[in-house]
Amino acid sequence: MANPSIDWHVRAREIRIDGRMVVDGERRTAADGATFDCISPLNGQPLGAVARGRAVDVDGAVAAARAAFDDGRWAHQAPAVRKKILQRFADLILAAKEELALLECVDMGKPIQYALSVDVPATARCIHWYAEAVDKLYDEVAPTPRSALALITREPVGVVGAIVPWNYPMIMAGWKLGPALAAGNSVVLKPSEKSPLTALRLAELAVAAGVPPGVFNVVPGFGHEAGEALALHMEVDAIAFTGSTRTGRRMLDYAARSNLKRVYNELGGKSAFVVFDDCGDVTRAAVTAAGALFFNQGESCNAPSRVLVHERIADEFAARVAAEAANYAPGDPLNPRTVMGALVDETQMRTVLGYIDAGRAEGARCIAGGGQARVETGGYFVEPTVFDGVTNRMKIAREEIFGPVTGILRFKDEAEAIAIANDSPYGLQASVWSDQLSRAHRVARALRAGTVHVNQYDEDDITVPFGGFKQSGNGRDKSLHAFDKYTELKTTWIRID
Predict the structure, then answer these.
(1) What are the catalytic residues?
(2) CA–CA gap between residue 198 and residue 116 (Å, rounded)
């Protein structure tokens, strides 16, 4: 919870932005001196100028990362040494929690209380967990004949290009940096141009912790410039991307057009929240659905934006979700009591409002919200919105909205619920609510999603993998499985005479 003695408005007015990129351990301007304005979604006003990285800047960052990798200043360090440095990095993140949380709040629009209580500690915890894990991973000896010894070892993949989105800038960066750096790689991070500020500060903290120059570099800029240049670069060995499915397709194309680098995409979602009529606590299910959807202003890839409810309890459930939406009225993100903040920019706000218009036009009934909020602030706020009478053919049920909008769909029986839930190009997460253990297990196995929650939603831990099926991507963030993305398996076969 935010410290009530802190006046966050005063802190926000005192912010001084250093928007220069971080390359080879140093702050740098773009090669051509270009910048772009970083606009706060709280009021539509500029926070400061940020370096506009382009291909030449990406070249410099990749060259620094390649040199750092090739000379072994990081990759050749003992795992225990990397562990200690990354632990210091995590400690410095926690020490700077108020600064980082404030940057995240004014840059991206999330409430200060959640930036403090969720985003900063989750980022530090991720870095610390992978630091602890790296000297506990063992290689293998294959069961060969006595005349041979076959060693199977994990080696760092090399230079990793990490491209992260604007909705959880710190956490998404941490999910990439933790395993990539722990495994011994060098990283070039391209944050979203919509929320670049915490990434730049993280790079400074990493250098202060002892991460050698060139090992962790940050190049801010636009996707079609810095992002494309990074994904096409012949000296980048792997791309770890989190973002839209549309851009994820481009990542695969860039890999094919360049050096066939490995591409790990964590993409969009349209998660199904399935409530059966044998759910013993409809109120808790409705409260959970609303909380999971409206958290972070609905700007979450795993948000349960399709709520499937058995027709016998659908009216009651819809009314409860609509009533719960009132508890998420957008407020001032700098107020420690605010639970829903601003959408990241005007473009995203207009996109979300366009989906609300489409839902009405296609015949869905808007039973809560449905409009812009806090217009007088100049910021980008949208009311928490609930549609009833949604069908799975409607645009608001097919496409990822990435805003505080959910739709309630009705089903008759278990088979229809499974069919509707799986009738989506996405497969990131899902949830099943039933008091019958056999049904919960049966339906969970039938749902095509990377994570299926039972009688809860979005409970989480760094020890479990995160990722999806179908067009929600490939590979997994978090857990020990994330090391698979940032290491190569090498076999060394030794003949014994």
Answers:
(1) 266, 301
(2) 13
